[in-house]
Write a structure and sequence with these properties.
By secondary structure, the chain is mostly helical. The chain has 5 helices and no strands. Helix 1 runs antiparallel to helix 4, helix 2 packs antiparallel against helix 3 and helix 3 packs antiparallel against helix 4.
Length: about 140
């Protein structure tokens, strides 16, 4: 079983790859390719944030009694990232290469800083404070065929 840090950090890497693929497609003016990759990234990011906000952060707050610490900051940054995603979606719909690129640069900077805080501070704290079974709660449910 992976640790919380390993599991969620790997999820960050997958998201970064999806986003980079969308940015590269936009750079080639492949707007259909950009749209499909962007939509996949947006869905993955929303799922990642949902797992953190509904499982990880409440578990951390309950285990530590800290409610105004790292999870509070992460939730705020999630809202900022979602706002930038909307701006990216607008630029994508307009096929505005310059607007998409500018927003993408701002998004990458915010996402990198956010991920670094989670990976270097919050996730290691969660690894220490939360039970090992927490990782299983972070995984998406298996769908029956």
């Amino acid at each position: 079983m992976k640790s919380i840090s390993e599991f969620l950090s790997a999820d960050h890497r997958r998201g970064e790859e999806l986003f980079e693929a969308a940015v590269q497609a936009a750079g080639r003016s492949d707007w259909d390719g950009c749209r499909s990759r962007f939509d996949a990234f947006r869905a993955a990011l929303r799922r990642h944030m949902e797992v953190e906000e509904q499982i990880l952060f409440p578990g951390f707050e309950e285990a530590t009694g800290i409610t105004a610490g790292p999870p509070h900051v992460m939730r705020h940054e999630h809202r900022q990232m979602l706002g930038l995603l909307e701006q990216l979606a607008t630029a994508l719909s307009a096929r505005d290469a310059a607007g998409f690129s500018g927003c993408a640069n701002a998004f990458v900077a915010l996402m990198a800083a956010h991920s670094a805080k989670e990976e270097n501070v919050l996730y290691p704290m969660c690894d220490q404070m939360l039970p090992e079974s927490t990782v299983e709660k972070l995984r998406p449910p298996v769908k029956n065929a």
